[in-house]
Design goal:
The protein is built from 14 helices and 18 strands. It is α+β, with helices and mostly antiparallel strands. The protein has two domains: about 5-245, Glutamine Phosphoribosylpyrophosphate, subunit 1, domain 1; about 255-480, HUPs (Rossmann fold, 3-Layer(aba) Sandwich), CATH 3.40.50.620. Helix 6 (about 265-275) packs across helix 12 and helix 12 (about 420-430) crosses helix 13. The longest helix has 17 residues, at about 15-30. The model has no long low-confidence stretch (mean pLDDT about 90). Keywords: ATP-binding, Ligase, Metal-binding, Nucleotide-binding, Zinc.
Length: about 500
């Protein structure tokens, strides 16, 4: 929609040179942010006495800012701006200054990126007077009517009364040493320029720095304002944040576990069950070699744990192919599976990415708060989509993958563990490891020679416990391998 941005200026004394340099950065942000809004430009600066310095133009921002007189002076403590992308529903043919953001009330100034869907309802409900028909114009009078100036007060107004999308920058002439930033799913970033003692903010991080090729020690510190967060920042160094998510007290945390029927996801599901989560299993049949055995295993595991199971057929992986697991090529069995354990010979293109995408849709539709996977540190050595960073970065985009006010988060209960640690945890939490299937093949017994079999056998041996599943290996090999291992003890079923 729009670019919003601005600056909060710290320090007791703002000399002319620093004011000039701060304004240069601010102008750079405005020009770079033009890609998100070209229909008008406005900026409001606030000084330490609560006075406003306003410049608004119907020109595109790059032209407007070239004609703008100096906006930052020795008394300025903050400024906010807006590059407007005018939505179809808010089109105004003949704009006045009141139609150009930031919107100015009696004492509250707001720059807004997004759409306020219930502006007319708010106007009627609270008998508000606004200076423009544009939706953002409802925010200053709404805040002046309902907001007590506190961060929690801002949270209450946004959660209880505002419907729509927003990233907000707010100033109050009664409190000139602060700015408030708030966002649901619209992007907002901050950059601290230590040499200028100034905190800049804008809709995208790229707008906040001039040259990404500069040495890191010459770069500002950039941080995202996390989605569904409100912040209050003061030039006295105060810094507070609150969540803008509705908390449902007393409701159990619901988690959808992407489960293959193997060690990792089974241990993850059992661990989460023990932690008090409301667990359901999600299993994908995607035409892979071990589909029959995995399907049998996951049903037994779900029955043992006493949790729901959702199975999804993904026939479209027949189009993907290009993997031994999908019938293209042979399973690697070199060095009893060691080589297959150390390199992704059996990589299925984007499999985990696709699984997580579909799981996200299901979780949102059916009210699950979390999606858990069995990704782990061991397999991250060969498979990029088992790296913890994969899940961590996906969590960064999850607020943009689900609907407004929805919350789905990815969990990786065994993401930090290698295979023998997963087996150890599985034994500790009573996971039904005896029901799991790890082999790439679809035989009656584990082959004992593919990568997963190699890791599984050694993981149990390191724990001094004999693997409860059978391997298609010579009896003498098995007896020698497990000679010093104690028997596996079948765990009790979890109590309801």
């Amino acid at each position: 929609m729009c670019t919003i941005g601005g600056v909060l200026i710290f320090g007791d004394r703002l000399d002319r040179d620093r004011a000039k340099r701060i304004e240069e950065v601010l102008r750079m942000i405005v020009v770079k942010g033009e890609e998100r809004g070209r229909d008008s430009f406005g900026i409001v600066a606030l000084d330490k006495n609560g006075e406003l310095n306003v410049f608004k133009s119907r020109d595109r921002p790059s032209i407007a800012v070239s004609r703008m007189p100096s906006i930052i002076n020795e008394n300025t403590v903050a400024a906010i701006f807006n590059n407007r992308a005018e939505p179809t529903t808010e089109y105004v043919r003949a704009k006045t200054e009141d139609d150009i953001q930031p919107m100015i009330g009696e004492h509250v100034v707001v720059a807004h990126n997004g759409t306020i869907a219930n502006d007319k309802d708010l106007e009627t409900k609270f008998n508000l007077t606004r200076r423009s028909r544009i939706d953002t114009a409802i925010l200053p009078p709404l805040l002046e009517r309902l907001w007590d100036g506190s961060l929690n007060g801002l949270r209450d107004v946004l959660i209880n009364h505002v419907i729509g999308s927003y990233a907000l920058a707010i100033m109050d002439t009664r409190r000139p040493g602060k700015v408030w930033l708030a966002t649901n799913f619209k992007p907002l970033y901050m950059a601290w320029y230590s040499d200028l003692k100034a905190l800049f903010f804008a809709s995208l991080d790229d707008y906040l720095v001039n040259d990404q090729g500069r040495p890191i020690w010459d770069m500002p510190t950039i941080r995202r304002v996390e989605p569904y967060t409100a912040m209050e920042i003061g030039i006295d160094g105060t810094w507070s944040t609150v969540s803008l998510r509705r908390e449902e007290q007393g409701r159990r945390r619901r988690v959808l576990v992407i489960a293959s029927g193997g060690l990792d996801s089974t241990t993850a599901a059992t661990y989460l069950l023990k932690q008090g989560y409301d667990v359901a299993l999600l299993h994908f049949n995607y035409g892979h070699r071990a589909e029959t055995q995995e399907d049998r295993a996951i049903r037994r595991i779900a029955e043992f744990l006493g949790v729901p199971l959702l199975e999804v057929s993904m026939d479209f992986f027949k189009v993907v192919r290009h993997s031994p697991l999908l019938g293209d090529g042979e399973i690697n069995r070199v060095d009893e599976g060691r080589e297959g354990a150390e390199f992704a010979h059996e990589w299925v293109p984007a499999r985990n990415f696709v699984f997580i995408a579909l799981a996200t849709a299901i979780a949102e539709a059916y009210g699950y708060d979390y999606i858990a996977t069995g990704i782990n540190l061991e397999e991250a050595g060969a498979y990029p989509d088992n790296e913890m960073e994969f899940i961590r970065l996906l969590n960064k985009v999850m607020p943009y993958a689900v609907g407004p006010n929805k919350h789905v988060e990815l969990l990786m209960p065994v993401g930090h563990l290698v295979k023998h640690e997963i087996v150890k945890l599985g034994l500790e939490v009573g996971a039904p490891l005896h029901l799991t299937w790890s082999c790439y093949d679809n035989g009656e017994r584990h082959c004992g020679r593919c990568g997963p079999c190699y890791m599984r056998r050694w993981a149990f041996r390191i724990n001094g416990v004999r693997d409860p599943v059978e391997y298609d290996l010579p009896v003498e090999v098995e007896e020698e391998f497990w000679r010093d291992a104690r028997p596996y003890k079948i765990p009790k079923r979890p109590s309801k």
